[in-house]
Amino acid sequence: MSPKAMSALAISAVLLAGCGGEPAAAPSSPGTTPSASASPAIPSPSPSESLPPVTDKVSLPQLMREEFPGGQVKVLRESGSTDAYRRFEVSHPSGPLTITGVLFRPRGAGPFPGVVFAHGHIDTDIYVTGQGLRREQDRLAREGYVVLHTDYRGHAGSSSIPEGTEEDESRLGYTRDTINAVQAMKRLPYVDPDRTALLGRSMGGGVVMNALVAQPDLVRAGVTYASVSSDIVDNINRWAVPSRPDEVARLYRQHGDPEQQPEFWEGLSARTYFDRIEVPVQMHHGTDDESCPIGWAYTTRDLMETAGVRQRLWVYQGEQHAFGPQWDLSIRRVLGFLDRHLA
Fold first, then answer.
1. Prior bond to 245 cis, omega within 30?
2. Rg of the chain taking only CA atoms, in angstroms
3. SS3 (DSSP) at 86
4. pTM assigned to the model
């Protein structure tokens, strides 16, 4: 691997990562007609005209303008199936890249609702396909949901992160892979494409928020667990500044620091565009989260509420980042939420 590629991956490890701490692997009104004397309607703006301006190609507004065809899910092998579901190792395209993951299909004919999982940070040197969110994979599949857990680029058997693609240092690449995973899942003959959702944990919570603002009509609901901040600068300050100060300095030289060039960093922060979210969002966070401070969740909730997002933050007293004693309560709340909105 070239030094340049190694540098890109090193920066990804801190700026893409955000919180880690994945739990250890474990088993017009209808019928109205305007009158002839009505004033001519003012044409609605085209989609591109109604979007925020693109001030940098490395930005969420750029993502809003992209197309995501998804492509076909390819089954690589079957492993880990149970009496309740079949489990497959799969791949799907994400633009020119191939992304691996695991797919859970409940027993039966379907069509089933589907959920794409966006996992938290796990070092790519140890990550294996489908790692993270193991409890959630099993539980949702047993409850009749198709689950597609995407590995992201640079993980497991996925294509490597393209050299020099700086958007991948800010989770945009992972967001692209997740959006394309939803589009690929919708093509499966046993999935109801009108009943899909996103669920993300830790760093994956940030990926879910990015996807919801970039493609508001992608899914019908979003869920986050112990999410990173909706402001990328919070995440950089918490992980990258103390561990990789030289890399942060290089980024700031290239793009300006948040005080000098706030527009650039706002363009990478989902909270800037919360008014674009059209679906309900359910959030789960522990008060003793040692990785992603509970204050981030409160701020995200408040900003979503101000933006008019239908949201609910469930707070778990004493619960830490990985969720332990109250995980079962949380997943029952997730299932109730998904059952209501994907019915």
1. no
2. 20
3. strand
4. 0.88
Amino acid at 227: S
Q: How far is CA 212 from the centre of its chain?
A: 8
On whether the CB atoms of residues 166 and 190 are closer than 8 A, the answer is no
Q: How far apart are CA 214 and CA 61, in angstroms?
A: 7
99 near 181, Cβ under 8 Å?
yes
pLDDT at 48: 52
Evaluate if residue 110 carries a pLDDT over 60: yes
Helix/strand/coil for 289: coil
3-state DSSP assignment of residue 147:
strand
**Residue-wise pLDDT tens digits, 1-56:** 433 333 333 334 445 445 655 554 433 333 333 333 333 343 444 445 589 999 89
> Exposure of 333 by Cβ count < 10 A (0-12 exposed, 13-18 middle, 19+ buried)?
middle
Cis preceding-peptide flag for 111 (omega within 30 of 0): yes
Count the helices and strands in the chain (H runs, E runs): 12, 9
Token code pair at residue 294:
């509970």
Can you tell me the distance from the alpha carbon of 11 to that of 20, in angstroms, rounded to the nearest whole number? 15
Number of residues written out for the chain: 343
CB atoms within 10 A of CB 48: 9
